[in-house]
Design brief:
The chain is an alpha/beta fold. The chain has eleven helices and 22 strands. The N and C termini lie far apart (65 Å).
């Protein structure tokens, strides 16, 4: 039965493409689906915690946990299966899941995830093999796109291993065209690690693009693999400098998935990590085991006030305003004239924040937003404690623990 379905799929693909060969007048549509990811995508991905150890039981349980934990209601949508779900291609070239790991097939899994009010994401690679050594999509882009559409896939993370001789922009345009031809609206996540400056060409091709190599479960360090490196949370954050002008509704800088709840970061570091990803309008893709979260982890991942900052419809990526004594001050303009403010303590000692609102003028040339607090009064709310800190009519004085953050929302009175 699977072979017959694959044959029909192949014939459909050949017929569809043949119709455009006459007269040599076919122009390929290399653009993404419009109207998707108008705010940064929110969801979960299997790689950070499970790497290649994925199967349908795990994915179903994660979907269940996303619902029961309150994450779905907080805005998380995508359940993304990363590398190693693949089986083999059959004699007609159609890709199949590893039936030992996914015996019910991807269509049944997608149906289950959709029944939970969630969406299914999947993974492939622009090269001949994925990073985990499974079949890549090179030469099979249109066939794979049709397969994903048939399964009911909603999101594709498209990696960049084993891509000898390929140019990134062309390779990702090919997959964008294949997805468009398949007809099912699918979010395309460009994952070529920022090597070919995808922010310069990715806006029409994909909905988000990785800006760096892989994140590492560490707040402020680098893991050296010899020929490549993984980056701690702060190193990833620093690498976003200069990229904010490329982000906006439907096209986002992607600093990689969250390490919140994976056990190595302190509670303060988890808060700081999540807050800064919210401030820079990053996709919020959790990477922990949702089935065994502590209450503290759930509280971070489901903080609706922080998520509101990330999901703000203005879609402006926040910016660093000042640095003093290892404390970075960040601002992010929001829809309707509100502002988000973060005081990020990167040091290993507690620092005191002393900020005189009335003496500061904050202007964002990118969005033309301006915050003049001398002539206006804003309410100040701490988004992690939920408490009011008064208004900008009085000086802000607060202590920020090491590797922690003070995150505020300013609302005009």
């Amino acid at each position: 039965m699977l072979r017959i379905k694959c044959l029909l799929l192949s014939l459909f693909l050949l017929y569809s493409l043949a119709g455009f060969t006459q007269g040599n007048n076919y122009v390929q549509d290399y653009t993404k689906f419009q109207g998707l990811a108008l705010t940064p995508p929110m969801g979960w991905n299997s790689w950070n915690k499970f790497a290649c150890n994925v199967d349908e039981k795990l994915i179903r349980e994660i979907a269940d946990a996303m619902v029961s934990s309150g994450m779905r209601d907080a805005g998380y949508t995508y359940i993304n299966i990363d590398d190693c779900w693949h089986g083999e291609r059959d004699s007609l070239g159609c890709i199949h899941p590893d039936l030992k790991r996914f015996p019910s097939g991807m269509k049944a899994l997608a149906d289950y995830i959709h029944s939970k009010g969630l969406k299914l994401g999947i993974y492939s690679d622009a090269g001949s093999m994925t990073c985990g050594g499974r079949p890549g999509s090179r030469g099979y882009e249109f066939q794979d796109a049709l397969t994903y559409a048939k399964w009911g896939v909603d999101y594709l993370k498209y990696d960049w291993c084993n891509t000898e001789g390929l140019k990134a922009e062309g390779a990702y345009k090919t997959m964008a065209a294949a997805l468009k031809k398949a007809g099912r609206p699918i979010v395309l996540s460009i994952c070529e690690w920022g090597n070919d400056k995808p922010w310069e060409w990715g806006q029409t091709v994909g909905h988000l693009w990785r800006t760096t190599g892989d994140i590492f479960n560490c707040f402020d360090c680098i893991e050296d693999h010899g020929t490549w490196k993984s980056w701690g949370v702060m190193q990833i954050l620093d690498k976003q400098d200069g990229l904010r002008k490329y982000a906006g509704p439907g096209h986002w800088n992607d600093p990689d998935m969250l390490e919140v709840g994976n056990g190595r970061l302190t509670p303060g570091e988890d808060r700081a990590h999540f807050s800064m990803w919210a401030m820079i309008a990053a996709p919020l893709i959790a990477g922990n085991d949702l089935r065994s979260m502590t209450k503290e982890t759930v509280a971070v991942l489901t903080n609706k006030e922080v998520i509101r900052i990330n999901q703000d419809s203005l879609g402006v990526q926040g910016f660093k305003f000042a640095v003093k004594d290892s404390v970075e001050t960040w601002f992010k303009p929001l829809k309707g004239g509100d502002w988000a403010v973060c005081f990020l303590n990167r040091s290993k000692q507690t620092r005191t924040v002393d900020f005189d609102w009335k003496k500061e003028v904050v202007k964002d040339d990118l969005s033309d937003a301006e915050l003049q607090m001398a002539g206006s009064e804003y309410g100040v709310k701490d988004l992690w404690t939920g408490t009011s800190l008064g208004t900008t009519s009085k000086r802000l004085k607060a202590k920020v623990p090491p590797h922690d953050i003070l995150m505020l929302r300013l609302t005009r009175k």
